[in-house]
Amino acid sequence: MSKPELLAPAGDMNCLIAADRFGADAVYIGGPLLQLRAEKSAFTEEEIDTAAKLLHSKGKKLYVTVNSFTKNSEIEPLKSYARNLHSLGVDAVIVSDLGAVRTIKQAEPNLEVHISTQANCCNYASALAYYEMGASRIVIAREMTIDEIAEMHSKIPEDLELEAFVHGAMCMAYSGRCLISSYMNGRSGNRGECTQPCRWEYYLVERNRPNEYLKLEEYPDHSALLSSHDMKAIGFLDKLADAGIDSFKIEGRMKTEYYVSHVVNAYRRAIDKSAPLELLDDELNAISHRPYNSGFYFGNLVHGHKNDGLYHWDCTFAGVALEDCKDGKLKIQQRNFFKLGDTIEVLSPETFGMKFTATKIVNEKGEECESACHPQEFLTLDCTADVKKGDILRVRTEKKEIVTDI
């Protein structure tokens, strides 16, 4: 059995390059139309062309999300958009709206269509219906269990692929079809404008006492009753593969290159079995995340596990290597504060667990510095490690307690 595809998100070209470098087999991005994320994460058609050529040169694939709920006024523009994406070399589009699926296949029959998780496809009958419309892949509903996935796989054609999310943020609403943001401030999560009110703090009010507010207390300094855990499936990828999953998908088109590099690196090594699971688990704690759990893959969500609704992380993004280390000197662009004497850990797709000590920091003026304190400044460090261009540098912070269900 071949290894499942590792599918990574990218909100800009830096993230796409990082996803490629750290081992993704395919990358999904948003374009200028119907892409269900903020405009700043949208690739232009020129950037899509560049991204497709870069990935194809390495035998990898590029998918474009067209998964926003579609309005009447968008049907005609969608036809020409589908043709443009196909001409740019896009391997598939990810679509949630039934009418959009039909429109795309009529306008450009040779453009592959993947059914988005927003379509909440959670049974084999729905999967077969989409297959008959021309879909080549189903991104399964996040609410499916592993047993349900296996049953679906057994009742669909061999050439209909299944894709599943394995890591990242989860929505409190069924398959992400949330209306809270629309209700609270008129910005629709189904149109790429979600303001994440599920992460806000709320008070309890009794209807006959409208001026009496009771604070909902989970923790001394924070309450987030509607805030979901983050998903982490790195410990049971084999079970998902055995159930018939063809592609492991990482959530996070709004995330940074630091996040993308860490998660792709960890899951690449897990799929290849090139590093102990315990170490990869630690790698996923290095990035900013909410408490982890395993989603619905083993049935209903586990109750009784704490979720403070806050972000946790074990490391801070210190910088990125601009060139290979040469003659003991490393040129970097700084991302966050670090100082002389700090242990700099190196995230690299080539070597695991590399580190060195910051013994000398020199700025662009040639001045020695006690610390790297100016945002995104260019620095030269004395370096004893074999750091390569594009490697991620980080500094470990004080260890935090992180609750997991896995």
Describe the structure in your own words:
The chain has 406 residues and is an alpha/beta fold. It has three domains: 5-170 and 228-293, Alpha-Beta Barrel (TIM Barrel); 175-215, no CATH class; 315-396, Elongation Factor Tu (Ef-tu), domain 3 (Beta Barrel). It is built from ten helices and 22 strands. It has helices at residues 13-21, 45-56, 75-87, 98-107, 124-132, 146-154, 180-185, 237-243, 257-272, 277-285, and strands at 5-9, 26-30, 61-66, 92-95, 112-115, 135-139, 161-169, 203-205, 213-215, 230-232, 247-250, 292-293, 315-321, 329-334, 338-339, 343-347, 354-357, 361-362, 368-369, 371-372, 378-382, 392-396. Helix 1 (13-21) packs parallel to helix 9, helix 3 packs across helix 4 (98-107) and helix 9 runs antiparallel to helix 10. Mean pLDDT is 89; it is low at 400-406.
* Head-to-tail CA distance between termini: 26 Å
Q: Assign the CATH superfamily of the largest domain.
A: Phosphoenolpyruvate-binding domains
Based on Cα principal axes, name the global outline: globular
Helix proportion range: 10-25%
- Based on helices, strands and strand pairing, what is the structural class? alpha/beta
**Low-confidence parts lasting 5 or more residues at pLDDT below 50?**
400-406
Major β-sheet profile: 8 strands, parallel, barrel
Strand order of the largest sheet: 1-2-3-4-5-6-7-11
The gyration radius over C-alpha positions equals: 22 Å
Proportion of strand residues:
15-25%
From the 3D coordinates, which CATH architecture of the largest domain would you assign? Alpha-Beta Barrel
Tally of domains: 3
The average pLDDT is 89
Provide the CATH top-level class of the largest domain: Alpha Beta
CATH topology of the largest domain: TIM Barrel
Q: Helix count? A: 10
The beta-strand count equals: 22
